[in-house]
Amino acid sequence: MPKDTGIGAPTKRREDIRYLTGKGRYTDDIRAYGECAAVFARSTVANGKIVGIDTSEAKKMPGVLAVFTGEDFVDVGGNPAGWLINSRNGEPMKEPKRPVLAHGKVRHVGDAYAAVIAETVEQARDAAEAIIADIEDLPAIVDMREALKDEALVHDEIGTNQCFDWGWIEDNRAATDEAIKNAHHVTTLELVNNRLVPNAMETRCSIGSYNPATDDYVLQTTSQNPHLTRLLISAFVMGIPENKLTVIAPDVGGGFGSKIYHYGEEALVLAAAKKLGRTVKWTADRTEAFLTDAHGRDHVTKIELAMDAEGNFLAFRTKTMANVGAYLSNFSTATPTFLHGTLMAGNYTVPNVYVNVKTVFTNTAPVDAYRGAGRPEATYSLERVIDKAAREIGRDPIALRRQNFIKPDQYPYASAAGLEYDSGNYDALMDKMEDVADFAGFDARVKESQAKGLWRGRGVNAYIEACGIAPSNLVGQLGSRVGLYDAATVRVNATGNLSVMVGAHSHGQGHETVFPQVVGEMLGIDPASIDIVHGDTSKIPFGMGTYGSRSLAVCGSAVVRATEKIIAKAKKIAAHMLEASEGDIELKDGNFTVAGTDKSVGFGEVALKAYIPHNFPIEDIEPGLEETAFYDPANFTYPSGAYCCEVEIDPETGKVRVDRMTAVDDFGNVINPMIVTGQVHGGLAQGIGQALLENTHYNADGQLETASYMDYAMPLAEDLPMYHVDHSQGTPCTHNPLGVKGCGEAGAIGSPPTVVNAVVDALQRGGKNVTHVDMPVSPHNVWKAMQSA
Amino acid sequence: MTNVTMTVNGKQVSGEVEGRTLLVQFLREDLHMTGTHVGCDTSQCGACQVHVDGKPVKACTMFAIEADGTEVGTIEGQANADGSLNVIQQAFQDHHGLQCGFCTPGMVMTTAALLKENPTPTEAEVRSYLKGNICRCTGYHNIVKAIMAASGQDVGAIAAE
């Protein structure tokens, strides 16, 4: 088989053809006969009591078919949080109901309190404006510290704005406190992990339809995980049996976390479709996306690092306030806890770690997992405080990290934050990074910058993340209400081509190209004869979808297991055809051969025999050639990396320019290096965006002041450099069949502290004793730091 | 409602539109040409980039009525006559210049306009010209590389990796 298509080959993406020619099929591109439009009436105040909603005028408007309010959904369930987290005192988290439409109160700007269905979207919009909402404006709760005073409440019924007060690991607390008390040196840093809006370029869109003759519902929606959406709607929100609800996520224009979750609009279009007997479509505009998509990050953290006289790390202690917004989104309770606290030992042999996280309700949009999800927050805190510590004790930041790294002979390594890392080699990554980032040329570049009147600085970082989430047994113990396996069906058709149904959803990751590379290599056949089917609950056995860099590590493993079953059965059929013993059959280059002979049948012949079972050992082997596997991993995977950033600061303006960005990552084995590199690029841009540009700002009244691309600084081509990316230092994952770790989030995890470390270094080299600048390191923030230094 | 007539990808089309109907709505809803996307409604993201009388235009910022009598080019008209990818499209595939594909039609249309104005742009010129096109997936590296490759330049030297 040509090596430009199998495992390890940079195969070009087959999905590109439809995207490049305008033939992609995104949800909003779908039009149904008799389709009508939904438009939502949304709160313009952050916190308000709904006194009354008068829809009488709106109902009389041209083309209007129905108007819904929260009253119509009081009897259906709420959209739940997927993880139950207990507070340190054992109390379960506070879980106020998240209704389909606001009822009684509106809790953030953009909270939908009514929906209009009309013949056209223009008519629906006009009618939505005719709804008279009597909403009594209440004081907005925006700042987390203020919120924790409980002077005003987001949810009156729970009596507090604190969702939970979590400790990890509570049994380590005393030892950590003791280590910090007795340490030779303690470095303390207070920092903000700025709130971000995911901003997939395709806004959310949902189309509901209903067939009264069969009681079947279909939801076409912008989702990263249609099965999870179906499960949430079926089991929690609307009670539609799963066999009566098909969820289809067609081409999806980016997700980055924001399309993991089930949103009320999806339930609304289904309810409206049933009531009207019409197909109902809703498409968000960009400002709706800013106001209602789940946001990311928004942590305020104090971290302490304790060291002995030699610079050995003794303890990390963290206190974090994490904003969950007005309602609990599906992963919102897992993100600041188990995807954050468990990573707080980093790449280090530190013996004591204690993390305290208070999650806080505010009158802002819900906050949930955004590319990296908890791990960027952990890495940022760790790698900023280590940099500060190195400066305080006069050590080289790389040498200090290396001294404390877990060494290659220590795996499996039980971290002080409760995880068991399976493989890694952090020194090798650092060595490679120093080479790729051209450390040798740094001094000369500093001088070149000086000649231009600019301050150059260099920042580094070492990160580890937990991906491929995860073992159901483990996450179940940690409070997950779902399992986190994945599934695949490999169907060999009679004529020898394959359809592979996968539970992961591809929305930019290139599964349609990569999964056939794996199956083609295993079977020794041309990947072009293999197609991937994804994003349709009626066609796929099950699946937990795409997030947490899990597609290849979890779903790819399910594909491998199902393909192994295919091979086992095909060998039996071949043995019968060749009149040989099954144990003597070898599969090589797409042919089944009797070992040591020239007797052979091709893969296609075996497939045909399976479906035309004449002269077939029907008593021993079933006809057909189709196998399903569910794969539940034994552990998380642990990608790691060493990053470097060089910035130039203009001391006249405080403007930062990222000049060089180097990412050296250990993703284990790599199936398609072109796609892996592209994933890193995208992550880097989002991480640099967070560090340099992006910020989500609510004013004191809870108005989102950054609700369009005129006010929210999305990274543009001219803000970013060419990247230096390397993944040659992979240490294979030890517990999945492909030895892969996941690459989707790394860039967004590793880059923010790297950029800020570089900015602090540049300021120091420029003679300003600045020890920290909060993100984004905008000219304003850098200038302020320079003036106060 | 007003009748508009225009040429889209070389074919004459007409339809009845409201005064507020945008060109992008006319293309998507009336002509069912859904390759032109709406990403932001405020002219920043460029997912709706088309050509009007040979010039790059954001179709979310022009009323359909304003396009009456013009020649409009969209992503659906970019491939070669035999259906194969044109030079720009091929370069985007070769250099992995797209991921989710949503911004891609706009990127291709913008690239065509850039290369018409400036057949061999520098990296800085490419990045500057893309300021009206947002991509959230690729970090732009491979888009810049694809555009420079499409202009016939050797991209081995500019691409760091």
Describe this structure in words.
The complex is a heterodimer of chains A (789) and B (161). In chain A, α14 packs parallel to α15 and α17 crosses α18 (746-765). In chain A, 59% of the residues are buried. Chain A has a seven-stranded mixed beta sheet with strand order 3-5-1-12-9-10-11, with helices on both faces. Chain A has a five-stranded mixed beta sheet with strand order 7-15-14-13-8, with helices on both faces. A four-stranded mixed beta sheet of chain A has the order 18-26-27-28, sandwiched between helices. Chain A contains 19 helices and 28 strands. Among the domains of chain A are: 16-22 and 485-631, Aldehyde Oxidoreductase, domain 4 (2-Layer Sandwich), CATH 3.30.365.10; 445-460 and 639-789, Aldehyde Oxidoreductase, domain 4 (2-Layer Sandwich). With 789 residues, chain A is of the alpha+beta class. With 161 residues, chain B is of the alpha+beta class. Chain B folds into two domains: 2-76, Beta-grasp domain (Ubiquitin-like (UB roll)); 87-150, DNA polymerase, domain 1 (Orthogonal Bundle), CATH 1.10.150. Helices cover 29% and strands 16% of the residues of chain B. Chain B has five helices and five strands; from the N terminus they run ββαβββαααα. Chain B has helices at residues 23-30, 87-94, 104-117, 123-129, 141-150; strands spanning 2-8, 11-17, 49-52, 55-58, 71-73. A five-stranded mixed beta sheet of chain B has the order 2-1-5-3-4, with helices on both faces. In chain B, a hairpin with a 2-residue loop joins β3 and β4 (55-58). The longest helix of chain B is centred in the C-terminal third of the chain and has 14 residues, at 104-117. The radius of gyration of chain B is 16 Å and the shape is elongated. Chain B starts with a strand and ends in an 11-residue tail after the last helix. The mean pLDDT of chain B is 96. The interface between A and B is large, with 61 and 61 residues.
